[in-house]
């Protein structure tokens, strides 16, 4: 065969092939078109009361629609003009007629309420192309009021070839049966976020409150100290009896205020978690005896009996916060005295060892279990207690007026309303019991009360302490050649530095300190004072302000500077004018806050002793870093009062 | 000798001292500081006061011989004297010292001189009184009585 023949036959073949393909294509196209039409028909077909022949093949879809038609959910499809294309029976039963091709307002009776909202949602869905949902209050005559959850979902089509244009909207309406007042649930929009916000704001408010209380108390304290000092100075200026009495009333009011401030500060610092408890050795029996003595003095006129009892099992020395224990005990005893006119006040102290095993029959009962531990539900009861720990258990009983049952609920709240006579100076405040309770709980214990009106009351508190023998860590300043056994129970005597140049004053001061159980190192001027501070560690400094060479203000400034920076300030040795220094002293202006020391050394209490009790003088003392001041001439009670704030008072010789 | 009469005398003298403002509460404080561990405290302090004050008054008198006068120095002395007399409870002496310092501040030479004389007089008075009281105390104790403490 020649090439032209081959070409011809292949060409014929190709043409035939081509014809086949074209035919196939046409078939496919028409089938495709038929399919599309079918789909379109399916889309447009309404309720399937009569299944139209075009959708016969889509039996499943028909079945779905059939199921939907009888459901109690209203689902409908509207076109972009919001005309119904199809709807479930449910909706039509509301409407009472066939809805196809109609608008809402052509279907529902005129009095129908809620249609605008539904229309709005549908329009939103069409415009935004995203799902819209809301609750709608609906009223349909003969059906009543309902609350519907309406969900409008746009449906996308192929109009104009673009795929993303909403061409209709599917609306689902759920009737939510709600009882009358739980409409509020629907209306309420409190979300988790809002609740969280509320909690956060509340916590912030509490923090702000505590800071405010703290700052205000300090701010009030300074001029109050000034006031009391001035009153003292006035007292020694030659008054007649009447004036003296008036002045004493002034002082006692001022002292009450000072005590209230102290309580407020304590409460605020406890709430903000800033209060730190001491863990120092102390003697519980000593505290009981001291307070008993005080009680005897306080009940002198009333003629009450004061009884005290310290159980045999109470150890001689325990480790804990003796100052706070004393504070609580003292308050409760004073309280007892206040409300008892005749009979007795008893102080009873016992101890129960914590043995660490819940099975031990001597293990304290649930009642004694610490308040703090009770809150930790998942932890075993013995957590935090080790062998050698003690519960100190103190009861203060009185034969006084008793507390009525109605008062029990708010007894330990802040600012409870029980009145007390304002002429009795107890330093008592409405904060007292609340403070005691918080302190006791902070120490791992509980404060409870039993009382009967007319018979008396018993206040009981427990605190957790450690046994001294077990928790004996060697003191960093212990002398290595000490022959005594490591657990030395001798209380460390506080070291006081006294800077005073007048010999008579020195003799008087030493004698007063001796009466209080203290000894002191004496220096005669500011330079010697600083020398002594550099050589030795002191627990408290009593500084005369007017001294030669270097006055007390400069000494205080130097000490604070050293505490904060670890170095002594220059230029102080050549007797610079303290006025220059005072401009740089803002940092030390501080009403005695112990926790402010951020430097290398702990803040040593510095007490100014001065005859100048003018406000400006007092302020200058505080500005230079003093913590308190005692006016001259020094009165014994005042010295004792101030010292007891900073040092534990050894037993006094009466 | 009957301690009772001595005690009455003592009490009267003490009361008079308070009424005259020769001595004030501060002196009572000193008496209260005296106890078996500190048995001669008042006598010791008082004699220290005498010693100290006499020296001071001497030094003060000398400053008036300077020309020009050193008021600062005078003020310093007076300040000391004020301190110790206050600690003892010599109320009138202390009050005079306050006035004295005011004159020093004014640099009033005559005023200061006047004050010095007054202060010397007052010191002498309180010294005599204190010595009398202390002597009475000794006599009471020697007679077997106890020294009454005034409230």
From TrEMBL, chain B:
The gene is HP1-1. It comes from Selaginella moellendorffii (Spikemoss). The keyword Cytoplasm applies. GO terms for cellular component: cytoplasm; cytosol; nucleus. Functions as a two-component phosphorelay mediators between cytokinin sensor histidine kinases and response regulators (B-type ARRs). Plays an important role in propagating cytokinin signal transduction. This is Histidine-containing phosphotransfer protein. Residues 38-143 form the HPt domain. The lineage of its organism: Eukaryota, Viridiplantae, Streptophyta, Embryophyta, Tracheophyta. Pfam families: Hpt. PANTHER family: PHOSPHORELAY INTERMEDIATE PROTEIN YPD1.
């Amino acid at each position: 065969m020649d090439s032209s023949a081959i070409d011809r036959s292949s060409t014929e073949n190709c043409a035939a092939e081509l014809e086949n393909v074209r035919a196939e294509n046409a078939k496919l196209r028409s089938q495709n078109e038929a399919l599309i039409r079918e789909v379109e028909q399916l889309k447009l077909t309404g309720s399937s009361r009569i299944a139209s022949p075009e959708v016969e093949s889509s039996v499943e879809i028909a079945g779905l629609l059939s199921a939907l038609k009888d459901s109690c959910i209203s689902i409908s499809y509207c076109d972009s003009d919001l005309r119904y294309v199809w709807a479930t029976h449910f909706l039509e039963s509301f409407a009472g007629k066939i809805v196809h091709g109609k608008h809402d307002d052509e279907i529902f009776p005129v009095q129908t309420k809620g249609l605008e909202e539904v229309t709005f949602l549908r329009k939103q869905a069409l415009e935004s192309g995203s799902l819209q949902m809301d609750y709608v209050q609906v009223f349909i005559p003969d059906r009543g009021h309902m609350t519907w959850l309406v969900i409008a979902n746009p449906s996308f089509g192929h109009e104009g070839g673009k795929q993303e244009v909403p061409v209709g909207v599917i609306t689902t309406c759920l009737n939510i049966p709600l009882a009358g007042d739980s409409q509020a649930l629907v209306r309420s929009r409190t979300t988790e976020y809002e609740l969280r916000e509320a909690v956060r704001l509340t916590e912030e408010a509490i923090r702000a409150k505590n800071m405010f209380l703290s700052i205000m108390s300090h701010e009030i304290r300074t001029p109050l100290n000034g006031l009391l000092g001035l009153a003292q100075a006035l007292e020694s200026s030659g008054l007649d009896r009447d004036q003296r009495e008036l002045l004493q009333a002034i002082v006692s009011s001022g002292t009450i205020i000072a005590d209230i401030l102290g309580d407020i500060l304590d409460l605020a610092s406890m709430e903000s978690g800033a209060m730190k408890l001491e863990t120092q050795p102390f003697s519980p029996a000593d505290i009981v005896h001291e307070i008993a003595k005080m009680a005897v003095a306080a009940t002198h006129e009333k003629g009450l009996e004061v009884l005290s009892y310290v159980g045999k099992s109470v150890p001689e020395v325990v480790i804990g916060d003796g100052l706070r224990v004393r504070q609580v005990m003292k308050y409760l005893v004073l309280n007892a005295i206040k409300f008892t006119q005749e009979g007795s006040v008893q102080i009873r102290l016992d101890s129960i060892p914590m043995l660490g095993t819940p099975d031990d029959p001597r293990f304290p009962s649930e009642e004694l279990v610490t308040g703090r531990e009770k809150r930790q539900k998942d932890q075993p009861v013995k957590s935090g207690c080790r062998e050698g720990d003690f519960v100190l258990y103190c009861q203060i009983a009185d034969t006084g007026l008793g507390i009525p049952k109605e008062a029990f609920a708010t007894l330990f709240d802040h600012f409870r309303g029980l009145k007390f006579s304002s002429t009795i100076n107890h330093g008592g405040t409405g904060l007292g019991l609340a403070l005691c309770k918080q302190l006791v709980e902070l120490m791992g214990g509980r404060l409870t009360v039993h009382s009967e009106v007319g018979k008396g009351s018993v206040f009981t508190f427990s605190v957790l302490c450690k046994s001294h023998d077990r928790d004996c860590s060697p003191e960093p300043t212990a002398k290595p050649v000490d022959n005594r056994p490591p657990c030395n129970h001798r209380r460390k005597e506080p070291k006081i530095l006294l800077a005073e140049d007048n010999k008579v004053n020195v003799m008087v001061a030493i004698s007063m300190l001796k009466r209080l159980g203290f000894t002191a190192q004496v220096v005669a001027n500011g330079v010697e004072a600083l020398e002594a501070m550099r050589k030795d560690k002191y627990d408290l400094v009593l500084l005369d302000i007017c001294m030669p060479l270097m006055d007390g203000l400069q000494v205080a400034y130097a000490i604070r500077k050293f505490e904060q920076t670890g170095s002594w300030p220059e230029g102080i040795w050549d007797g610079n004018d303290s006025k220059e220094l005072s401009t740089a002293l803002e940092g030390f202006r501080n009403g005695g806050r112990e926790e402010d020391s951020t430097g290398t050394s702990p803040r040593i209490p510095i007490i100014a002793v001065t005859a100048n009790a003018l406000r400006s003088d007092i302020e200058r003392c505080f500005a230079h870093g003093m913590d308190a001041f005692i006016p001259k001439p020094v009165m014994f009670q005042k010295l004792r009062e101030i010292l007891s704030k900073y040092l534990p008072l050894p037993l006094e010789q009466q | 000798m009957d301690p009772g009469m001595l005690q009455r005398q003592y009490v009267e003298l003490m009361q008079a001292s308070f009424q005259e403002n020769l001595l004030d509460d501060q002196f009572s404080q000193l008496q209260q500081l005296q106890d078996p561990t500190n048995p001669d405290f008042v006598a010791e302090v008082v004699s220290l006061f005498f010693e100290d004050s006499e020296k001071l008054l001497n030094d003060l008198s000398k400053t008036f011989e300077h020309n020009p006068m050193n008021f600062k120095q005078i003020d310093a002395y007076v300040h000391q004297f004020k301190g110790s007399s206050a600690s003892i409870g010599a109320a009138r002496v202390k009050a005079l010292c306050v006035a004295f310092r005011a004159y020093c501040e004014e640099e009033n030479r005559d005023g200061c001189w006047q004050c010095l004389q007054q202060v010397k007089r007052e010191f002498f008075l309180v010294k005599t009184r204190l010595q009398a009281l202390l002597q009475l105390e000794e006599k009471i104790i020697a007679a077997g009585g106890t020294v009454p403490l005034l409230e």
